[in-house]
Amino acid sequence: MNVNEQNEAMTTDVVRHVAKLSRLALTDTEIEKTIEDLSSIFSHIDKLKEVDTAGVEPLDHPTELLNRDRDDEIGATLSQQQVLENAPAVRDVYIDVPKVLGEGS
């Protein structure tokens, strides 16, 4: 599918449908911008399809980094007092954190 075919296929109705499936509420302006953005993305993908990759070995990762695993070893630990001294807020002997669940939870 070339860029012109994609632009024709990328209609307002298509974007509205995808937005609905994605549970996104888009304004008419956002839909038009999305059409432009997606057309640009698909155009870029078409350019990538033109690249000759014959003879190129597939990669399982874009870099050749190796994981540096180490054994878990018990080491020095912080005392309760040291932990509390580093906490942003403390209540009695506990770390005080903001409430994260609502009233009905």
Provide structural commentary.
The chain has helices at residues 3-9, 12-21, 28-49, 80-86, and strands spanning 90-91, 94-95. Strand 1 and strand 2 (94-95) form a beta hairpin. The protein has a domain at 3-49: Histone, subunit A (Orthogonal Bundle), CATH 1.10.20. It has 105 residues and is mostly helical. The chain has 4 helices and 2 strands. Strands 1-2 form a two-stranded antiparallel ribbon.
Order of helices and strands: HHHHEE
Low-pLDDT sequence parts: none
Tell me the Rg in angstroms.
27 Å
CATH architecture of the domain at 3-49: Orthogonal Bundle
* Fraction in beta strands: under 5%
Percent range of helical residues:
40-55%
Strand ordering within the main sheet: 1-2
Query: In the CATH scheme, what's the topology name of the domain at 3-49?
Result: Histone, subunit A
Cα-to-Cα separation, first versus last residue: 50 Å
Helical/strand content category: mainly alpha
Helix tally?
Answer: 4
Largest sheet: 2 strands, antiparallel
Q: What is the CATH class of the domain at 3-49? A: Mainly Alpha
The count of β-strands is 2
Shape designation: flat
Average pLDDT rating: 86
Layout of helices and strands, plus pairs?
Elements: H1 3-9, H2 12-21, H3 28-49, H4 80-86, E1 90-91, E2 94-95
Antiparallel strand pairs: 1-2
